Amino acid sequence: MRNLTMMTDLYQLTMMYGYFRKGMEKRTATFDMFFRRGNVNMYAVVAGLEQAIDYVKRLEFNEDDLAYLRSLKLFDDDFLALLGDLKFTGDIYALPEGSIVFPGEPIVEVTAPILQAQLVETTLLNIINHQTLIASKSCRVCMAAQGDDVSEFGLRRAQGPDAGIYGARAAVIGGCTSTSNVMTGEMYHIPIKGTHAHSWVMSFDDEISAFRAYAEVFPTACLLLVDTYDTLRSGVPNAITVFRELRAKGYEPIGIRLDSGDLAYLSKRARKMLDEAGFPKAKIFASNDLDENIIWDLKAQGAAIDSWGVGTKLITSNDCPALGGVYKMVSENDEQGNEIPKIKISENAEKITTPCRKNVYRLYERATGRAIADLMTLRSETIDDTKPLTIFHPEAPWKRMEVTDFKAVQLLQPIFVNGQCRYETPALLDIQAYAKSQVETLWDEYKRLNNPHVYKVDLSQRLYDIKQHMLSEGRKA
Q: Under a CB-based contact definition with an 8 Å cutoff, are residues 359 and 59 in contact?
């Protein structure tokens, strides 16, 4: 991995210099990273923590970095010397990768000397915004596929190498069973898949010669792209001919791939042709600018498709190109170490922040294991799940419900404590399994592709009272 310390916005460095010049550099501040409602579906799948951890571990300005910053003539030598000695010494709490997170909830909480806490903002947002966005999109795509295999096929359309590599990683967290990206497969020990392109077929005198040549080279992994010329009059019949020749040599074909046309109609016709020819186990793989909505519609039409290759619309999250995660100060410590809550007030209710260091609890029905609601509390608060608990809507507090027979699980986990990493990242396929288990705790109403029910994310009474008091004082000011 690279040292990404200099991958930051200039205003982080100018604020750091301002804090330094004003004697504020020893203050400790807490920042929350979260996303706002309306940018993605009603929930997101957390991804990118492994790369964020690596970034923080490597946080260090080298001599070349300092020479460049000196050339800007913005910073004095004392500040540059401080940067030369800078290491991360604070605490980071975060949701493990694969966790389900809702708008307004901290994905990452950073508590550190203010220069350090300010510096890490841009890169943490860059890493976690991107991967969480793609993992969330992948989750929706795989949900639409209803248990079929989904392969991530987007490398050539990704916005650069990093987006291709880490986007594929995130897509696997969200549920994809494989990727076409060989480097991601090598780096993270995940399955890779691919067959041939139209250029293979066009490189031979005729289609059947191309199919025979491919079957000769890959007799145990023969999956043929059948739409170069005419899917039903040429591609599928030629594939069946080659499949019969393979079977005569003792091999069974994998199947065919459709990459254009009316996939519902073509797949049903191709399935009938394959079955009648004696190849009921031959798979039909489909690609062609797919996303969750198209897959859902194809499934509803009875498309005879066994496996899906999803590229551009997944790797770019084309319907929602940015998660919209933000990083906001929620408290500072005074000289005695007491927490001073901080709040950002806006005329837009969505942009009003929730102050204080927090716990986030998920409340589950004991009988079903399904999630009921999330509750954000002060860090000092705990929940006794042996007693009934009343929760209420933070924007409409008259909407209340009593929760009984539930289990409360604290979501934020310590990642760094006093600058030392305390977290070991699981293997990628273990993260995928965890993400799947978390999605399964949600009622179907929250997982609808369109108009999902709004999941409850509430505040404890104490946290609510602090926020309302700060809003009242802000209005007076």
A: no
